[in-house]
Write a structure and sequence with these properties.
This protein is an alpha/beta fold. 20% of the residues lie in helices and 18% in strands.
Length: 124
């Protein structure tokens, strides 16, 4: 059995629900997905996600993961895609959860030299 067939399909209905959560410009289903098919692993083979979703906050992340869980859709989180071990590559297709819009500094604790930041950055 091919690994992808173990999972649910990304349907038009699912894409519509994802669009309700993050807005149309933050759901990619076209050629732009190729930018999310690999990371910086040398000589790696690309794997195209079915859809890329770019939430702006944790509430949206929770809604996306709930939908994916209900439909058994694989989710690959992605920060900047600069990893060199293939972790951000969506080998089973499904959803790439790109955190590139979650790039804010939340707090700088000068007394303890601790910066709390969101997980994304914009490498691509
Ligand atoms: C030129 C170059 C130099 C580098 N130098 C260093 C170095 O000096 N030190 C070093 O440690 N690394 C280095 N790296 C590796 C890489 O930059 C780091 O591993 C970096 O931390 C990856 O961050 P990212 O946001 O790009 O992660 P990604 O590549 O997007 O993701 C890495 C893994 O984390 C998962 N992930 C991402 N975000 C989340 C999230 N919010 N929640 C759960 N899982 C998540 C992904 O699914 C994936 O498995 C280098 C890479 C390059 C290309």
């Amino acid at each position: 059995m091919e690994a992808r067939s173990r999972y649910g399909e990304v349907t038009d209905n699912l894409v519509a629900l994802l669009t309700e959560i993050v807005g149309a410009k933050n759901v990619l289903t076209g050629d732009e997905r190729e930018n999310y098919a690999r990371d910086e692993t040398p000589k790696s083979k690309p794997f195209l996600p079915d859809v890329v979703v770019k939430p702006e906050d944790t509430n949206s992340v929770a809604k996306i993961l709930k939908l994916a869980s209900e439909r058994n859709i694989p989710v690959t989180p992605r920060g900047g895609g600069t990893g060199v071990s293939g972790g951000a590559v969506p080998i089973y297709g499904g959803i790439v959860l790109s955190l590139e819009r979650m790039n804010r500094i939340l707090e700088i604790d000068e007394d303890n030299f601790v910066a709390t930041v969101e997980p994304g950055n914009e490498q691509i």
